[in-house]
Amino acid sequence: MSDPFSPSVLRVEQPRRGPFARSQYKVLDADGTLLAVADQSNERARRERLQTFFPGKSELHARAVLLTTPDGTPLLAVDKESGRMLTTVSRVDGETVGTFRTERVGRRYLIRDSEGGPLGEIAVDLGRNNFTVTDAEGSRVGHIRKKWAGIATHLLTTADKYTVEINDPVPEPLRTMVVTTAIAMDLTLHESKDIT
Fold first, then answer.
1. What is the pLDDT of residue 3?
2. Taking the CB of the first residue and of the last residue of the chain, which one, N or C, has fewer CB atoms within 10 A?
3. Alpha carbon distance 196, 186 (integer Å)
4. Are 98 and 176 contacting, i.e. CB atoms less than 8 angstroms apart?
5. Residues 124 and 185 sit within 8 Å (Cβ to Cβ)
6. How much is the pTM?
7. How far apart are alpha carbons 115 and 92 in whole angstroms?
């Protein structure tokens, strides 16, 4: 499969897990076919284990996941730096695709290309469940919706489900940034459910 993210509708699911487990995601098409998996990188995973012994504010911790095809071929890395200000999406050769830069925490994020030029932005609703992605001219290019899973699931686990709708055609690198928005926003806004 040359481009596993070619469908205009994708689902991003984070398996139900305890508060100290690694960040993991599945990317599926609308029919439920597994297109890619994301798992926390080993370097960051070691740091996360240490944080279970030295608790702090988890939404401020750095986290990174590597997206691969189901057979393990690397595709992209999504790397959230310490704090909530910057998340970088890179290709496996290290080339930066773009960044998500916080303008207003929890409400507005700027999408930049590898040179720092504007690609678009993400507007977030008050409940942090709907993410509208627009291009640099303000035209809507995508919408990401986080499914409400119930109070117990929301408070006690990190199980999250997102639907990603892309208003194709969307040019690269913006399209790749729209595809990775659910993971980037989950790492930035919803991983703070961890107890560490």
1. 82
2. N
3. 16
4. yes
5. yes
6. 0.82
7. 18
Phi, psi of 50, rounded to the nearest 5 degrees: -65, -35
The mean per-residue pLDDT over the stretch 155-173 comes to 84
Number of domains present in the structure of the chain? 1
CATH of the domain at 85: 2.40.160.200
Residue 157 lies in a domain: yes
Q: Which domain range does residue 93 map to?
A: 9-193
Q: Is residue 1 domain-resident?
A: no
Q: Is residue 3 part of a domain?
A: no
- Which parts of 9-152 are beta strand (E)? 9-14, 24-29, 34-40, 63-68, 74-80, 86-91, 96-104, 108-113, 118-124, 130-135, 140-147
Are 133 and 151 in contact, with CB atoms under 8 Å apart? no
- How much is the CA Rg of the chain, to the nearest whole Å? 16
What integer pLDDT is reported at residue 159 of this predicted model?
66
Predicted confidence (pLDDT) per residue in 23-52, tens digit: 789 999 999 999 999 998 654 444 444 444
In whole angstroms, what is the distance from residue 135 CA to residue 67 CA? Answer: 24
